[in-house]
Amino acid sequence: MKLTNSEKAMLEGQEGEAVQKAMEMLVRYGEALGAEKFIDTTNVGGYMIANLEQYKRFNSFDGAFSEMCMDSDVTVKLPPVKVSSCQFETSMDPEYYKLAGKSDEEYELYKSNIDYLANLGIQVMCTCTPYQVGNVPVKGEHCAWMESSAVVYINSVLGARTNCEGRESTTSAMLTGKIPYWGLHITENRYGTHLIHVDEQPITMEDWGLLGYYVGKTVLDKIPVLDGIKKTPTRDMLKHFGAAAASAGGIELYHIPGITSDANTVEEAFGGRTPIEELNYGVNEKLNAYNLLNSIGDNENVDFIMLGCPHYSIEQVWDLCKKLEGKHVKEGVSFWVFTPQSIKDLANRNGFQKTIEDFGGLLMKDCCPAIGRFKPRGSSVMATDSAKQGHYLPNITGIEAWYGSVDDCVEAAVTGKWGGKFN
Amino acid sequence: MSETKDSIIIKGRTVYPGKVEGEALVSKMPLMGWGNVNVKQGFTVERDHPLYEVPLKDKILVFPYVRGSGGFVMYGHTKRYGVNPLAMLCTEPISYGIFAAMTMKQPMMTDFDIDPVKIIETGDYIIVNADEGFIEIVKNV
């Protein structure tokens, strides 16, 4: 890689040992990618949470993160971050850690971990959706983010530029303000590859989740261009679509000409090139996605409802609350809704948290079952409005999963039975 | 590429150096990381995947590319439990795929003269020389 003088200085240790180790990591990474240079970034989103096992190997956060997050053989003391950085979603909600089956020791470690990050200046947003709580990159901004659902959102909807990074590259970027200039940072690599004619119009959130799941399964890690969308979706629909597409396949960028950021026309989205493949999304494709997502469900006796993957916006919390009034969750069913702390604060101020609690549910922050690898004790059948969570949680915890609309999920919470149908 | 009666040599780009040899395990379907990996037992738990619960231990893992949410590094964490693949050979490089090789400090190569997924079959014997940038394939006949 070609390094600038200031990058060489960091590599030589002029800004301290931690920055040197971070730069060494980034050079190894950049060379492995085949990148020729670095690009400056002032917007990094990473994951620096240690579990008990990882912490106990080193007995310090510096030790754990030197190895896990910088691939360093020696422990270095991490200095405050050089550029604006945030922490993604974490492993538990400190208020409800017992419900997630976490021990007191794990809880104490979590609290110290968050303090450690705060002391480094890392914004402890603790959400998979920093763009919902103030970190909204502008078009063309070079970022270094993890979390596939966030990566696909800021690349596509906002036109920011990031690859799907890892812990090692994001921690190193926090300390240096550098990331390899590779992949989706480069205009040439952002053009569409597959053209999808959308005949079956997505109207609801559930529809957008199914379209995302189909696109991910079909296009895998390429760049789809969706043509024929007649109604402009909401932010939440695009959030939902991207999360499904990223988890079913590996979509990090898509284009909906005239709606998402990079292109106003199909031609512009392809940069004048011919699509590798053209596909049609009709009612059969939608049905296949629905059946695939629901192939994990067998038992209709639901005991866990999971909403908020990716984390709910305040609009979603509000919309949910309207559906809960006058109803109550069935005994033995856990009804958990996940959102970032700042949205939870707002929901509390608006009385939404009380509405959810009066219904018999809980509004949780900081985490989700898939990232925290938990489910309510004894639960075996989940209903969710998230294609992503429905895809992952069964693989992680062995739980069964049903996918449907928020209405289907509320109904299941009240009756304890899954009654969702394809429509 | 050079070919003798017994083996085929193809060149590639080194992602992580080292020399190992062993039996190939080929996944024609891309691999997903994070929640789809059982780190302690060293296999994928993604439903409908051809390698579902197939042990990766001591194999030369061959796959087209990495897909799905980040966290492919979890394949690298299998080393902590001694159930890691010996090397990884993939068709295309991807940002977060590389951390798996860095974490387990095992060779990884990509960008070959010929797509390894097309030429290598499960059971072939592979000599990986990521120090010098080539692999030797001994077909299982």
Key traits:
heterodimer, A: 423 residues, alpha/beta, Aconitase, domain 3, five-stranded parallel β-sheet, three-stranded parallel β-sheet, 17 helices, globular, B: 141 residues, mainly beta, Glucose Oxidase, domain 1, two-stranded parallel sheet
Question: Can you tell me the overall shape of chain B?
Answer: globular
Low-confidence residue ranges of chain B: none
Integer-rounded radius of gyration of chain A = 22 Å
The interface involving the most residues is between: A-B, 35 and 32 residues
Work out the count of structural domains of chain B: 1
Strand percentage of chain B lies at 25-35%
The CATH architecture designation of chain B is 3-Layer(bba) Sandwich
What name goes with the CATH superfamily of chain B?
Phosphohistidine domain
Instruction: Please give the share of residues in helix of chain B.
Output: 10-25%
CATH class of chain B: Alpha Beta
SS-derived structural category of chain B: mainly beta
Query: Can you tell me the residue ranges of chain A where pLDDT is under 50 for at least 5 consecutive residues?
Result: none
Give the percentage of residues in beta strands of chain A. Answer: 5-15%
CATH topology of chain B: Glucose Oxidase, domain 1
Give the helix/strand class of chain A: alpha/beta
Query: What gyration radius of chain B follows from the Cα positions, in whole Å?
Result: 14 Å
CATH fold name of the largest domain in chain A: Aconitase, domain 3
Mean pLDDT of chain A: 96
Protein name (chain A): DUF521 domain-containing protein
Pfam families (chain A): AcnX
GO molecular function (chain A): lyase activity
Organism (chain A): Alkalibaculum sporogenes
Q: How would you summarize what this structure contains?
A:
Chain A is an alpha/beta fold and 423 residues long.
Description:
The complex is a heterodimer of chains A (423) and B (141). Chain A has 423 residues and is an alpha/beta fold. Chain A folds into 3 domains: 5-187, Aconitase, domain 3 (2-Layer Sandwich), CATH 3.30.499; 191-292, no CATH class; 296-415, Aconitase, domain 3, CATH 3.30.499.10. Chain A has helices at 5-11, 17-33, 52-58, 61-70, 104-119, 148-156, 167-176, 205-219, 235-248, 266-270, 283-293, 314-324, 341-349, 352-359, 369-372, 387-397, 406-415; strands at 38-40, 44-46, 85-87, 144-145, 178-180, 194-198, 224-227, 277-281, 304-307, 334-338, 362-364, 381-384, 400-403. In chain A, the strands form 4 sheets. In chain A, strands 11-10-9-12-13 form a 5-stranded parallel sheet, with helices on both faces. In chain A, strand 6 (194-198), helix 8 (205-219) and strand 7 form a beta-alpha-beta unit. Chain B is mainly beta and 141 residues long. Chain B has one domain (2-138): Glucose Oxidase, domain 1 (3-Layer(bba) Sandwich), CATH 3.50.30. Chain B has 3 helices and 13 strands, in the order βββββββββαβαβαββ. In chain B, a hairpin with a 4-residue loop joins strand 12 (125-129) and strand 13 (134-138). The interface between A and B is medium-sized, with 35 and 32 residues. Chain A: It holds the Pfam family AcnX. Chain A: InterPro entries: PMDh-L-like_dom. Chain A: GO terms for molecular function: lyase activity.
